[in-house]
Design a protein that fits this description.
Helix content is 45%, strand content 13%. It is α+β, with helices and mostly antiparallel strands. The strands form 2 sheets. It has a 4-stranded mixed β-sheet with strand order 1-4-5-8. The radius of gyration is 21 Å and the shape is globular. The N terminus is likely disordered. The chain binds flavin-adenine dinucleotide.
Length: 392
């Protein structure tokens, strides 16, 4: 396994593997999505083909939406296709393996849509889901604030009742995709905190509403993925409240299993792995054969675990423990891969190099530390795992 600590060995013994079979027609579906990608994927420079779920392209998302590859598992009356979650999984892994630019719609498809489907009103479902499924409306997650990251229960940004609306002031931060999104699902404080997890409510926020300002944050590698979002007397109609007042914590934790268990949690460096194999050629030496074999075995194991979590979600369970394990081990794999490749390969690391391999390696060595921060840090995930194992 990628991380061979005693804790992760024990966690593995507790991982509930749900037997799952590929749905009928999955071979044909895989062919179908590969053909779609070959026909529709825009030219992407090599560094854009890794971590590509953070790379957005409006036209490509629209094309995916038109072809029925967004909101695939949602009911047809909301613009979905009633497909099986494991069929969706096949589509996602093919898109990630190809390095397709799926960042524009990724959050709405993975998280915002399913949240609206589960906790939203019928009006909200009809208003938002068809546009998300069509690749026309993109989402972002408004959880973190300055001073609130791991400890989400410490959210301070407040929504105050004002007639039929809620008046909101404050700031969200690290908001991925807010500069492209029309919709934010914001976690806001609506009541006095009795217990730490009380008094929180989720809202659908129209990011074009008066008083909303989105400012870019440029990361260390020069990329613009995330933002600060300021709210200055923003009025949110009560009809845009998701679920009951005070139910925000319960809903947010349900959302996190969707956020943590998918193939994006171990495939961010897949393009480098493919390039490594191509570069090794037909007769790799023993060390390279060993490295490729090791990485393949880890990748395959992570895939089985992640698909099993998808099967749990399909069966109506909440695989919170399994999702935390997939993310922790998957992120360890994604961070180790560029380091192992760097140690094994004789290549200059240079973002401006001619060789794709050197540019990919340089980029991934720079950005991979963030993989175990986004979506919950390693320490927080291990705390969840320990609690579920009865260790704390
Ligand atoms: C690329 C990227 C994209 C992101 N996108 C979004 C987004 O779209 N929306 C959004 O809302 N947020 C987003 N985030 C924010 C992300 O969720 C937070 O960075 C993360 O939850 C950690 O919070 P923090 O940065 O405040 O660090 P802190 O919570 O301050 O943690 C600092 C360190 O202390 C450790 N620590 C904290 N609490 C404990 C504890 N109880 N036990 C042990 N160790 C602990 C942490 O593990 C970490 O190592 C993104 C972050 C990144 C890097």
């Amino acid at each position: 396994m990628p991380a061979s600590t005693a804790g992760s060995t024990q966690a593995m013994q507790t991982f509930r593997v749900l037997p799952f079979a590929p749905p009928p027609g999955s071979v044909a579906l895989r062919e179908e999505i590969r053909a779609f990608i070959a026909e529709n994927m825009p030219h992407m420079d090599a560094p854009q083909r890794v971590n590509s779920w953070a790379v957005g392209n409006r036209e490509f998302s629209r094309a995916l939406g038109r072809a029925g590859y967004i909101g695939m598992t949602w009911p047809k009356r909301y613009g979905g296709r009633d497909r099986h979650p494991l069929e969706r999984y096949i589509v996602l892994e093919e898109l990630l393996a190809a390095g397709a630019p799926v960042g524009m719609h990724w959050i709405a498809d993975r998280q915002s849509g399913p949240l609206i489907l589960r906790f939203g009103t019928e009006e909200q479902r009809m208003q938002f889901l068809p546009r998300i499924a069509a690749g026309e409306l993109f989402g972002c997650i408004g959880m973190s604030e300055p001073g609130t990251g791991s400890d989400l229960a410490s959210v301070r940004m407040r929504a105050v009742r004002d007639g039929d609306s809620w008046r909101v002031n404050g700031q969200k931060v690290w908001t991925t995709n807010a500069h492209n999104a029309g919709l934010m699902i914001a976690l806001l404080r609506t009541g006095e905190a009795g217990g730490r997890h009380e008094g929180l409510t989720q809202f659908l926020v129209d990011l074009t509403a008066p008083g909303v300002t989105v400012r870019p944050i440029i990361d260390l590698a020069g990329g613009h993925d995330f933002n600060e979002v300021f709210f200055d007397d923003v009025l949110i109609p009560d009809t845009m409240r998701v679920g009951a007042e005070g139910d925000g914590w319960k809903q947010v934790t349900a959302e996190l299993s969707l956020e943590r268990s998918g193939p994006e949690r171990y495939m961010s460096c897949f393009g480098l792995f493919l390039t490594l194999i191509q570069r090794a050629g037909a007769n790799p030496d023993a060390a390279m054969t060993g490295l490729i074999g090791r990485l393949s075995a880890e990748l395959w194991t992570l895939r089985q675990m992640s698909m099993s979590a998808a099967a749990q979600l399909a069966a109506g369970n909440d695989p919170m423990l399994e999702a935390a394990i997939v993310k922790d081990l998957g992120n360890s794999f994604e961070q180790e891969l560029p380091r192992l490749v760097q140690a094994a390969a004789d290549a200059d690391m240079d973002l401006s190099a001619n060789e794709d391999f050197a540019r990919l390696l340089a980029l991934l060595l720079q950005i991979s530390p963030s993989f175990s921060l986004r979506g919950g840090t390693r320490e927080i995930l291990r705390g969840i795992i320990a609690r579920n194992l009865g260790l704390r």
